[in-house]
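Q: Got a minute? One more chain.
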Amino acid sequence: CGGIYGPGRGPLFSARKSTATKSAAPTEETVKYVNRILVDDICGALLTAVSSDRPTSGGRVYNLVDDDPAPRSEVTKEAHRLLGTESSKSTKTGNAAPRRGTPRNTGNKRCRNQRLKDDYGWKLNAPTFREGLSILLEL
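A: Always. Here it is, folded:
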């Protein structure tokens, strides 16, 4: 599964709570792609699979992600745009302790969901984070 977002969780929620502790803008070398999925689309995938008359997957693995892996900074920027807020532009200071590498900040993957679409006819409500964030704003 990609990074799950939905009501109270994810980029819109974080953007509303953000403070002036943002790090410097990423450079070309530090941009890391992340995969996301709206919680409603996870439910949709599961319902599609269990209600299908297709035989079980036979051990196949399915990626539950949207169609648009994107840099975290791009997602955050869009969340701020939709909220009408401005993201902080402060930079890191030399005094800050280095952050340990974790899956959250070291990943750089671009997963595909085509197998699930082909096998089960799955359709996303939010094909990209842009639609997903817009859906969440309507709630």
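A: Strands lie at 3-5, 33-34, 36-38, 70-71.
Q: Perfect, thanks.
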